[in-house]
Structure formats: structure tokens, C-alpha cells
Amino acid sequence: MTRLEFLVGLVIFLVSGPLVASEYIRGCYYTNWSQHKSPAFLPENINPGLCTHIFIAYDGINTSSLEIKGTEANDIEIFSRLVALKSNDPSLKLYLSIGGWQTGSSDFSSVASSDGKITQFADNVITTLRSNGLDGLDVAWFYPGLSPSPASDKSRFTTLLKILKTKFAAEGTATNRAPLGLTATVASSPDYADKAYDHASIQQYVDYINVMTYDISGNWIPHILQDDSSIPNIGFNSDWTQKAAVSYWMNKGFPANKILLGLSTYGEKFELTEVSGSQDLGMGGVSPVNLKAGFIPYYEVCEAITTNSWTSKWDDDKKIQYVSGQKGKSKLWIGYNTPQSFDKKLEIVTGSNLAGVSIWSLDNDDFTGSACGLGKYPLLNAVSQALISPTTSPSTSPTTSPTTAVTSKKKSPASEEYIRGCYYTNWAQYRSGSYKFLPEDIDPTICTHIFYAFSRLDGKGLNIGPYEANDKEMWGRVIALKSQNPKLKVYLVAGGWNEGSSNFGYIVEKDSRIRQFATNMISLLRTEGFDGFDVDWEYPGAGERGSVAAHKQRFTSFLRIIREEFTKESEKTGRPSLDLIAAVSPSPYFANRAYEHSIIHRYLDFLNVMTYDLAGTWLATVQHHSALKPATTFSTDWDMKRSIKYWTDNGFPASKIVLGLSNYGRGFKIGSGSQSAPGVKQLGVGSAGPGLQQSGFLSYSEICTLIKSNGWVSKWMEEQKVPYVYGMLNGIWNWVGYDTPRSFTEKIEFVKSQGLAGAFVWSLDMDDFTGTACGLGQYPLLNTIIDGFRGSTPPTKPPTSGDIFQEVTTQSVKKSTPGDPSSFVPSCDASGFGPNPFDCTKFYQCNNGQAYSQLCVSGLAWDQSISSCNWPSLVPGCESCCT
């Protein structure tokens, strides 16, 4: 071994390490052509909890450019829709499978012909996988060393895997990411495998192999056999079995804990004269859906049994299921799998200490649950039930049981970290030069939540949808960031200043419209992989914004009904509930007319208070648009401190409020540099900058550039804890209030001191994301937020639910019996809510002078301070109740 080979091997070992799984691998092949079947099989049909890995089959190789070559026109879109499944199962891994039977050997032979070609190919593979949010590569070369592939390809295949693995490990180290995974799909029998693989060598470079222990028999054999028998047939000669295949690979030096046993969700059809062991007269007829002779999906077998009254039989000697019967002039024999046969095959996995299984393919199981009478995905569910049982785990795994999927909608009373919300604007892609901002410019670890602004609100259609022509693609590219940060949440935003009120007004006019809107929205959010919805109606109740006074109450109904529908969908599907938030006005001018503050918090996970744009040219003097505190030396209109006090004084819990921060400045025209003190007369909107090209609106990176290149002067306002800058631009004196890491630090301390839930920024593209303008590295403002929250624990938030209390009793309480707590009757002089002094779990609602008894859901207590049910630990005097 050369020194170089030793170092390469050491790098691979240190970065990758041996394969240690916390649960058996349940690999599932998704075929990109199944979208063209009828019924079509789409990414949204996949239950992500059934698989630990999805192999996307197949793409090819461009031998000229040494890149992966797409095989479907919509491959990139399909990738993003598959990546979106991670929002429901962040641990899910997605591998792109290249090759397959149709691709054959010639393209692989070309790439593998020299180390230089392989190296270039590996670099391009890394780019493709990372840019699409995929986790690894599956190499399905059918087959190296077999004609027309030259015999030398056996060793070149090993070199291909070695270089890919080395490049994957190096890229992971360089970028501080988990290295991309590498698997190989391999033949199961010596006829191919002896000529194709150096078994003991390739195990060093792959995480595991998918052994294709299916298609073991076919019409090349003179008699009928099950295509993937688990054990040898008794009574007649069998060609090959799954158990023999596993023994073969292990005897060749391949570790059992790197082997995935191949299972098939389809059967093989034969025309015959007699049953088992009789002469094979050729492949069975064409499948009605898959249009492939001899090939029949599991769900079609079920349908054929029902339609033709065929009889299915179990052969306990061979551990196989088969069915035979007459169809037209043909007598057919079909060997196929059932949950029972899968159970027997899985005994090979557990008995031989294999890593798990790979299943071909998702679309051939009864994914609709309508054919076999066993619910959706009966075969894959059989695998899950057998391999994620607490009593089973691979021998190399930790002793802890694998984590099961979340099925409860109930949220934890404590947050893991402060919210760091980031707005992504879909128009930032159109800027030029260093100001152009794309999803790939986002550091996925810098935000806990990304708000995608904006979608198009379709009032009459009662739906939301794309605004920009490429929004669906961009949605997928943003959601793909979850592959690097599985905890990241991505919300779709509807509304904004330009949206106004007309579409919102139409939707909220009737409860039935809101409910249909919620149903349509849920479908879109789940399909695209979003985690929640951010409603930014600017503003309900504001006549000058096209709204009417009644919209204040209808906005509450809007939030309530959406929350109810989110809860229902969660309970029905077993998925965590979609989140619901609102972006709201910070000042009484709009907020008094727009919101029922003390009520809407029940339906929201948190509230984005837009504490910026607090000053503008509607004022007579220059003022900072997002000052933390008021000034005493000159008159100020509004500030962050007063905004938060306003919201909490009106009954909204501080622990659900997220403070809005701006990555930009608001500019005014002033007379001269000598007239630049805060509070001087403003002469109009300021100049446009070189990047955003918007008058009076400058990004932080633009301001840094102007300080450096135009000699602008920055000064600090100690009372308001924010800076401003002034200088000349295009012959005009400008005054701009903006933020720096110093002012962000002050604001983050304010968040913590006030018990708020966190902070959000408008917007990602206006920080110095390239790190070239301000001399403080990439994202200096957002990194200040991370530093400010580091080591701090956020406050406990009140619970959020579609119903945090049970149904109102239909009978009002008429009278009270002295000394009997059960008949307690409060005084109802005004409408509102009140506590039951005898029972923490009960409260009452007054309506038209009448009291109605209500009950919090199990585990919660009534909290009069927020007029809502809350965690008992947060309600004085009720800490020990509700257990």
C-alpha cells in the first residue's frame, strides 16, 4: 500500500466511519416513470414514515460533460417534491440512483476508463446532489466486466467507488457537512457477480449494497419459479434463492451489516400447462397498467384475484405465495409477495444480521389501499412492523430503540430555542451583480424559520398559489435546505402591503369560504412540503387599505377556522399540525382597528410584530424607523418598546411575540451635512442605492458600501440604541436610520428581558450575505442574533390548539346552591371570561348576561391573565392540577 492510499483510506474512515444504524434500513425505490402510469404515482403518494431511505431511479450519465443526465423533463421538480417529504420525517435520506438495466454498461465504462474522468464526474455529482438537497448516490451499473463491458471494468468499478467515496469525504470535511452517502446496486448471483465485483475491496468504499434478490427467475428457465424465493424449492430444481444470495456475498468477504436484502412488490407471470414445476410456455400477458409482459404489481394481483375469482395459495416448504387461474385462453401462474411472505424474508435480515432491506418499488405496493383490503402500503407496513419493533435492531446499532413518528398534535410546553425567523423575498432573484439573491445563498443553519414571501392570494378561487413564474421551483429549492438542517421550518406567506384587503375581505365574508380556503391551502402546503402559513393582511378594519370595520372580528374567525382545519388534518393523517402565524401592525393606529388581541393568540403559534417602518416621509422630521426606545431630546412617533407594551397590555402573551428587525435603512432627504442631527426637518424621500435601486430604502450591505466609497458618516443614538448615517449620493444629502450588529445586540437583549419568543428579520437578502461589503464576514446581522441567543432559554409559551377548551355546554347555569362548588354561578355584568374558583380546569363565558360553563382540554388550566387555557405550571395556584 502506498502512502497516498493509506492517507485516502484514513480520511474515509475518519469522516465516514463504519456504518452504525440506529434502526434497520428500509430502502424504497421511487421510479421517476411511475408518474406516467394510470393511476399516476407521485411523490405526494409516499408515506415518508415507511422508509428510512428513498432511492430515486433512474438518471443516466452524460459521457461528454461527465455529469449526471436527467431522464425525465421534470426531474428537478420531482427532486424538490421528494425533498419536501423531509418536512414530515427529517431523518429521511434521499439517494439518486444512476444506471439501471436500460442504461447498461457503455456510459459507465466511458466514465470509469480513467481516474481523471472519474474525478471530474465525482465533482459534478457532488454539485448535482448538493444543489438538489439529496443525501447520496446509488450506483446501479448493470454490469461491470460483463459483455459488452470489458473484463477490466471489474477493477475500474472498484476505482470508481473509491474515488467517489474519497471526493465525498473531502467535500464533507471542507464544507463542515455530513458527507454524501454512497451505495451500489449489485447482482445477487455468481453468474454476474463473480465477473463484476471485487467483493472484499468494494466494501471499503460503500455504505452498503442493495443486493437485487428478485428477478431470480424468468422465462430463461424451463419451468416456473418464484422470482425471489427466500429458500430453495423442494421437489424440483431451483435456480437461485435469496438465502443463497446473502450467503454468497458474505462468503466473498462482504460484511453482513452492509448488505440490504432486495424485496419485490411485484410478481412474475408465466403461461403454463400445469402448476408448480411444470413447463414454462413464456412470459404471461401484458400487465394492464404497467404494460410489461410477465410483470404484475401486487395491487394488480389483488385485483385479478377479485375479478377472476382466482385462488391464492401459500407454499410453506418454499415460503412463497402464488396464484394460478384461467384468463381467456391462457392459464397463468403468478409468483408474488404478500405480508406473510415478507415476514419470512425478513427473518433472513434479522437472522443474518443484515443492515436492512431495499424494496423495488413504492408504486407497485397497494399504495391507495383500495385493491387488497389491507389498508395502504400493506407490504411496506409489514416491513416497518417487523424491523422497527423495539425487540429488533441491527447488531451494530445502539441499544436504544428507534424513534417513532410523531402522531400527536399536542405541542410541548417548552421551546428548544429562541425563534430566529427570516423572510425570503421571491423578487430578490431579479437583482443584478452581488445583490442578486437565490435560495442557495441562504445559510440553512442561520434561521429556525424561513418565511417565503409572497404567494398569490386568489380570493374568488379560495386558494393561494405561486406569484412568480418560477415560484414552485423556488419553493422546492428553499425547502431543500432542510436536507442540511432538518429542524428548519419553512412557511408560505400570503398578503403584504401590495396585496391590500380585497381578496382577504372576500374570503372572510363567510365561514364556509374560510373553511374551503383552509382545505385548499392545506393541500398546497402539504404537497409542496411547507410547515405552516403566515398571514400578512395589511390591515383588517382599515378603510384606507380597502377593508371595513367588520373585518376585525372576521379576521379572528379566519384564524380560528384555519386552526380548526389544521388540527383536523393533523388528527386524520397523524402528521404534526401545520403551524399558523400572523404578521401584524406594531402601532395602535392600525392595530386598534384590526385585531382582537386577547383572542387571536389562541389560534396562533406565534406573532410577528412588524416593528420597523415606524417612521417615514409622513412625519415632519427625520426619525429612525426601527428605534428600540423613544428619545427625550426630540419628538418621536413610535418605537419597539412601546409596540411590545401595546400588544402585551392588550392581552397578547409576550412568550408568543416575535420582534421584527430590519436588515435595511429608511432614508430622508436633508438640507446639508450640518443639518443632520436626529429630529431635523426632512425634505422628502432619500436617494436610491446601487443595489436595491429603491428611493429611500437601502440594504445594510449598500449602506456599508456607501460608508466606504462615499465617505458617509455613521453615528450612534444612545437613547434609542440605534445608529444613523448621513452623506451625499447623486448630489443629494441623505439621512438614513439603519441597524448594525451593535443595535441588533441591544434588541436581542430586549427580546430576552421582555420574555419574547424570539426575533425575525426582513429580509435575508439585505444583510451582507456575501461578506464583501461590511468587513464582518457573511451575514453579520443574522449572526449577531445567533450570538445573542446562544446559551439562553426562551420562555414557555401558552398552548395553541384548534380548541384549547372543550365544547361550550348548551345549558346556561341558572342558580347556585350555597356550599356546592359544582353549582358555582358567577356574576355576568359584562361579556367576557372568568375563572371557576373551585376548579382550575373550568371557566365560564358571559354572553348577554348569561353564564356558560366551559372546560379546558385535558392537561390544561384556565389562566385569567391571558383569558385562555394554559400550562398549569404557568398559572399561579394551579401548578399541581390537571395531572
UniProtKB/TrEMBL annotation:
Name of a matching Pfam family:
CBM_14
Please provide, in alphabetical order, the Gene Ontology terms of the cellular component aspect for this entry: extracellular region
Task: Kindly give the InterPro entries that the UniProt entry links to this protein.
Answer: Chitin-bd_dom, Chitin-bd_dom_sf, Chitinase_II/V-like_cat, Chitinase_insertion_sf, GH, Glyco_hydro18_cat, Glyco_hydro_18_chit_AS, Glycosyl_Hydrlase_18
Tell me the first and last residues of the signal peptide. 1-22
Low complexity compositional bias, start-end: 389-407
Instruction: List every stretch annotated Disordered.
Output: 389-410
Superkingdom: Eukaryota
Q: Where is the GH18 domain?
A: 24-390, 418-792
Listed GO MF terms:
chitin binding; chitinase activity
- Is tRNA processing there in the keyword field? no
Family indicated by similarity:
Belongs to the glycosyl hydrolase 18 family. Chitinase class II subfamily.
This protein is called: Uncharacterized protein
